[in-house]
Amino acid sequence: MSGARQLLVTIFNSSIHRKEKALHNLATLIRFSLFPGVFLVSSLLTTNSSFSAENANRYRSHYKAALLADAESGRILRHDRMHQKIYPASLVKMMVALITLEEIKSGRISLQDHVKVSRWASKIGGHQVYLKQGEVFQLAELMKAIVISSANDAAVAVAEHVYGSDKIFIIKMNERALQLGMRKTHFYSVHGLPPGRGQELDVSSAYDLYLLALELLKHPQYLHWSSTRIDSFRNGTFQLLNTNHRLIRNYRGMEGMKTGYHRRAGFNLVSTAKRERQRFISVVLGATNSRWRSKTTKHLLNYGFNNYLKYELNKKGDSVPFSAKVDGGEVEDVSLQVAESVSILLSREERKRLKILPQIPSQTGAPVDAGQQLGRLEYWLDGKILKQVTLQSDSAVPAQSILPGLTGMLTKMSDIN
Fold first, then answer.
1. What is the pLDDT of residue 11?
2. pLDDT by residue (tens digit) across 328-354?
3. Which residues are CB-neighbours of 221 under 8 A, at least 6 positions away?
């Protein structure tokens, strides 16, 4: 079965069942001990196998690229054509928001800054909040308009405020994209509208937009805006309706992040949803209509919530059944403990394949301090390291004193005499 077909089959197979129902109604939580102090939490998960590969292929025809990832670790769980070139449309505003929030964090600008609307910003069409030349708004208000209602005129006004012109801002967008590893991306605008004569379309990929989403999640303010279904502008006289308002209202845990559309791009959505301790990122690009965009997004997120759990592998300070050899110490070895807690998102089948391997020096010279780093634990899945944690001594080992040896020698000499 091809990777793309497998992606769609697994998405469909998970759509009916809810992990929470399995956990709470069926009480299926079980704890497994790998070794003292290290535990895994497992859930009995069921899937529906009634969907055929034929249905999966038919479903796939309604989008151009898709991806599901664990937001905490960044691990990609499912993907289909994730490196294929697409047109992001208004998803470019995610980069506008990221750069602006980073400049705010640096202290160079502030959300309380007053932004004066230029003639150029007032003339930008498409989805807008109808800014007029010479009007003044707080930067926070314009950012709300960008993230919640995808206002193109606000995006230009913000870009001009941050760097003096939208052209300079676009240069910064492309520089930041390269820093993030977005190799298939090139921005030509701050709004994502179809280009005019002699201009070019913004381009990106599902993988690149996933990288952008990961970075944007470091800024809680963005999620505050993107999860807001309805807000207001112009002192309450203009309503801001989130372009993702249906999923925010109907899908539990949905917190945005950004929609995009124009005719050549299709219907795009980068979204994130969180339930309890689990957060996923979904990317759906080039959907044939908004219904298929939402449907694909829900199936991807359902697959994540229904089939993956965060397994608690160890807690900080847990002892492990390994010790480190000590040379020249008062004792020959020292017990070890983990320096930090580790939890990893895994499916039930992945949990069975997970390997935990110690990497400990063959010998360490005394003295050894309490809490001294003495190797690490590595968590391997299918030949790849998912995580590693430092191992440290749980007690000090002083160097062996020479006095007992000298005392013994003197005693023997005395016996001879």
1. 47
2. 999 999 999 999 999 999 999 999 999
3. 101
Please state, in angstroms and rounded to a whole number, the distance separating the CA atoms of residues 351 and 345. Answer: 9
The string of pLDDT tens digits covering residues 376-389 is 999 999 999 999 99
Alpha helices (runs of H) in 164-244, residue ranges in sequence order = 166-179, 206-216, 220-226
pTM for this model (two decimals)? 0.81
CB burial string 187-225: b at 16+ within 10 A, e below:
bebbbbbeeeeeeebbbbbbbbbbbbbbbbbebeebbeb
Q: How many residues does the chain have?
A: 417
pLDDT on residue 305: 96
Going from the N-terminus, what domains does the chain have, and what CATH number goes with each? 66-289 (3.40.710.10), 318-393 (2.60.410.10)
**DSSP H or E segment with residue 102:** helix 93-106
Given a contact cutoff of 8 angstroms between Cβ atoms, the answer to whether 114 and 136 are in contact is yes
355-359/373-381 β-pairing = antiparallel
C-alpha 295/C-alpha 279 separation (Å) is 19
* Closest by Cα among 306, 304, 288 to 16: 306
- For residue 309, CA distances in Å to 67, 280, 282, 318 come to 18, 12, 17, 21
Tokens encoding 394: 């749980």
CA-CA-CA-CA torsion sign (98, 100, 105, 108):
positive
